[in-house]
Amino acid sequence: MRSRDTDWDGVRLHVVTGKGGTGKTTVAAALALALAAGGRKVLLVEVEGRQGIAQVFDLPPLPYEERKIAVAPGGGDVHALAIDPEEAMLEYLEMFYGLKRMGKALTKMGVVDFATTIAPGLRDVLVTGKTSEAVRRRDRTGKRVYDTVVMDAPPTGRVTRFLNVTQEVAGLARVGPVRTHADMVRGVVASPETAVHFVTLLEEMPVQETLDGVAELRAAKLPVGGIFINMVRSVDPTLDGPFDVAELAMGVKAAGLGDDGNAAVIAEALAGEVTEQQRRAELERTERDALETAAVPRYELPLLADGADLAGLYELAEAIRTQGAA
């Protein structure tokens, strides 16, 4: 089946990052649904052990195995995987050394935890390696198992080091399976098949972290994707400009909502609310202007009135597709 044209044609690994509180996991889940729409098969990967995917899809905690969790519009499937670094290391020992049984014994002895503690980068390589393997995996007929993989990645402040850690590990292990594994991961995450997307709010701190993150990725020669502006409030354009409180008080009184005394009080309260909305709208315009300097595609996702429940995920997925991100 041929995919429709999008801003990210050719991208097979979508990495989603963002400052805490911006809705990173929710956007990653909605992006997976959007990418799966129309009959495609997408894997949504979680790497932080928070069971965030299970929460946004209202599911029990996910085991360390790939399983179908949702059907996208048009019949596509979303599968999910919550990566456990310890299990990933056991797979690694089996794959390269045939030591799975020995690895289980080492786990009981705490050696696996010890190894990933003295070499923290190894843990990240194992996690990104599992994701990269899913990107490249093919079935017996040679067809790719997944059309696309979406990774719910660590927060913005850590994502560049997380994705670039293969460079450090490769420097420590110049030959052998560890070096081969690190090179394979780097070959995926630094390629045009990957795009690292940022999730932000129209607020000063997350916007600045996004801009800093984009700059860090570019300095590390990692592929920058787009910016998803989450929780965007609709603003009434008629609220721009000065506001006449006396005129509003007359309107309140004419509507039968108060007499001469409390109509003025109501009008003052309404005027204060309108002024606050005007102030926020101006701040948001400033932050939008700042995001333009990143020179990457931007997508605006609405603030969900009922919260990010399952119905909300599908609403966000539709917004992502409508804007050409999937």
Automatic annotation (TrEMBL):
InterPro entries: ArsA/GET3_ATPase-like (IPR025723), ATPase_ArsA/GET3 (IPR016300), P-loop_NTPase (IPR027417). One of its GO terms (molecular function) is ATP hydrolysis activity. Residues 13-169 form the ArsA/GET3 Anion-transporting ATPase-like domain. It holds the Pfam family ArsA_ATPase. PANTHER family: ARSENICAL PUMP-DRIVING ATPASE ARSENITE-TRANSLOCATING ATPASE, ATPASE RV3679-RELATED. This is ATPase. It comes from Herbidospora galbida.
